[in-house]
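Write out the bound-state structure for hexanoyl-coenzyme A.
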Amino acid sequence: MANRIFAEDILQGKIAFVTGGGTGITGGVARAFARHGAKLAITSRKIESLKAMKELIENEDGSECIAVAGDVRDFTDVQNAIARTAEHYGSIDIVVNGAAGNFLCAANELSANGFGTVIDIDTKGTFNVCRAACEDLKKSRCQIINISATLHYLATPMQIHVSAAKAGVDAITRNLSVEWGRLGIRVNGIAPGPIEDTEGMKRLLPEALKDKITKRIPLGRFGKIKDIENAALFLASDAASYINGVTLVVDGGQWLQGTSLG
Ligand code: HXC
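---
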C-alpha cells in the first residue's frame, strides 16, 4: 500500500500479546501490528471492547485475533491469558503492556485505595504480564514494550498516582532490559505525550485547554495514535534489534517545555 511507512511484512509470523488492546493507543498498536503481519491476542477487563477490536483486526486488518478478558492486577488472570495465547498460537513473540488507569485528583484528596488502584493496574500489571510471559518470550528470544508517560519527568499536579505508577513502569523497563537482555529478551518502552482522540486525554484535558497546550508543544500539534503505532512498529521490528532498555519519548518535545498537562 502506497501510504505505508514500514514494509508490510516486518512482523510476519510474530505473535503479539497486547494488554489494554481493546481501545485507545494500545488498540491502535494492536491494529498496526496486525497490518504488518502479526497475529494478535488482546486482553482487557471489558470483553465488549475486545470483541469490537477483534472484529476490526480480523475484518479490516486481515489478521487473526483472540480476545481474552482479564484484569492485569490479578496474576491468575494474567497467567490464564498468557497460557491461552501460547496454547492457541504456539508461542508469544511480543508483549505490549498498555493497560492503564487514570483520573485527575489532587494528592490531598486522593484516597489510599485510589493511589493503589492505579499503581496496581499500571505498575503491578506490567510486572505481572512480563513475569507470566517470560518463559514464552525466552523461547522465542523476543521482546516487551511497556507504555508509560512523561508525567513524572518533572511534576504533574493532580497526577501523583499516575506519575508514581509510570515511574515504576520505566524502572521495570530498565531493570528487565538488564536481567532479561541476557535471556535474549529486549525490553523497551514508549512514553507518549498528549495524544488526541484517546480516553486518557478526554479524562485529563478539558477541550478548552487544548489550544493553550498545543502552543507549548514544540512541534505545534497534539500527537496522534498513529505516532505511537509507528514508534511501536519500529521498536518491535528488526530495525531495533540492538535497542534495549530505552523508553522512547513520543511527545513532539512537549515535556521539555514543562509539565505534561498545562
Ligand atoms: C478520585 C477516584 C476516581 C476519581 C476512582 N477513584 N476514580 N478517586 N477521583 N475520578 C478511586 C475510587 O474512589 C476508589 O478508591 C479507587 O479509586 C478505585 O476505584 P474503583 O472504581 O473501585 O476501581 P476500578 O473500577 O478498579 O478502576 C477505576 C479506575 C479505572 C482506575 C478509575 O476505571 C480507570 O482508570 N479507567 C480509565 C482507563 C483509562 O482511561 N485508561 C487510559 C489511561 S491514559 P476508594 O478509596 O473510594 O475505595 C494514561 C496516559 C497518561 O494513563 C498520560 C497522559 C499525558
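---
The chain has eight helices and seven strands.
Residues 15-193+227-251 form a domain with the Rossmann fold fold (CATH 3.40.50.720).
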